[in-house]
């Protein structure tokens, strides 16, 4: 099973030559990027899970409604909100979506399983920070979903073929044929492959003059759209199963 997921995050990069991109403009960029992703998913009839950053969830109500209406899952990505704030936004988001939010990812501020369960989450899908060195370290860890105190803990997938994680950076820089081989090898060994991408990777950085580290510039924007489209075409061609995370876990 391939679990395709997207983190809805505003691009945080600084700009060149004194160019100013406001928070509102960054939000519009994020919306545009997600709409491009939704178009590609719709063409290939593949459902995914979208982890929206808590601080922008209530500002993207119409977008989240559109994502949900197309049959995709809405979950949360928390960078630095307090537990009480996460609970408030969760309740408000569930009200306007009229659906339960079951999953969360965390960054920096880590809540315990008991705390997350207390505000109604059913699973946690933490991801590691991707930098120039980490994605190419050979890693070894369990790839099984663990149940703990009523919470499902979903690990980041790692390829037994290369020992590389399936993070946003690896998808961006690896040749598609190599990446496809990774997926095949992983599915021979593990029950699922968890793939995640960040919405900011679909940004036209030249248009907005964003400063991006040289190792993160490759394949951004339209090239990222083309790469995602090629990946989804391959999934359908090989008749590989896909699922939203909440459906697979529960």
Secondary-structure element series: EHEHHEHEHEEEHHEHHH
Helix content: 40-55%
Radius of gyration: 17 Å
Mean pLDDT: 90
Q: What sort of overall outline do the alpha carbons produce when their principal axes are compared?
A: globular
User: What kind of sheet is the major sheet?
Assistant: 8 strands, mixed
Q: Looking across the biggest beta sheet, what order are the strands in?
A: 6-7-5-4-3-2-1-8
Detail the poorly predicted runs.
none
What structural class results from the helix and strand content?
A: alpha/beta
Number of helical runs?
Answer: 10
Instruction: List the quaternary state of the chains.
Output: single chain
Word description of this protein:
The protein has 10 helices and 8 strands. The chain has about 250 residues and is of the alpha/beta class. The protein has an 8-stranded mixed β-sheet with strand order 6-7-5-4-3-2-1-8. Helix 1 (about 25-45) runs parallel beside helix 9. The two termini are about 15 Å apart.
Provide the fold topology.
Elements: E1 2-8, H1 23-44, E2 49-53, H2 54-57, H3 61-69, E3 73-78, H4 83-97, E4 103-106, H5 113-118, E5 123-124, E6 146-148, E7 151-153, H6 168-173, H7 176-189, E8 193-198, H8 205-208, H9 222-237, H10 245-249
Parallel strand pairs: 1-2, 1-8, 2-3, 3-4, 4-5, 5-7
Antiparallel strand pairs: 6-7
Helix pairs in contact: 1-9
């Amino acid at each position: 099973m391939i679990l395709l997921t997207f983190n809805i995050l505003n691009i945080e990069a600084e700009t060149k030559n004194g160019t100013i991109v406001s928070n509102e403009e960054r939000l519009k960029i994020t919306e545009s990027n997600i709409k491009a992703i939704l178009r590609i998913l719709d063409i290939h009839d593949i459902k995914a899970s979208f982890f929206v950053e808590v601080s922008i969830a209530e500002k993207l109500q119409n977008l989240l409604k559109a994502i949900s209406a197309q049959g995709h899952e809405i979950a949360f990505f928390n960078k630095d909100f307090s537990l009480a704030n996460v609970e408030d936004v969760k309740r408000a988001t569930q009200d306007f979506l009229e659906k339960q939010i079951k999953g969360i990812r965390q960054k920096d501020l880590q809540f315990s399983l008991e705390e997350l369960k207390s505000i109604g989450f059913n699973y946690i899908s933490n991801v590691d920070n991707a930098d120039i060195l980490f994605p190419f370290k050979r890693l070894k860890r369990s790839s099984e979903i663990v149940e703990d105190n009523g919470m499902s803990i979903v690990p980041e997938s790692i390829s037994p073929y290369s020992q590389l994680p399936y993070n946003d950076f690896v998808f961006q820089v690896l040749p598609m044929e190599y990446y496809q081989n990774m997926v095949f090898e992983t599915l021979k060994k593990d029950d699922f492959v968890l793939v995640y991408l960040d919405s900011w990777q679909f940004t036209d950085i030249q248009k907005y003059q964003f400063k991006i580290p040289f190792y993160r510039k490759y394949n951004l924007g339209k090239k990222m759209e083309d790469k995602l489209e090629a990946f989804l075409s391959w999934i359908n061609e090989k008749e590989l199963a896909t699922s939203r995370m909440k459906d697979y876990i529960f």
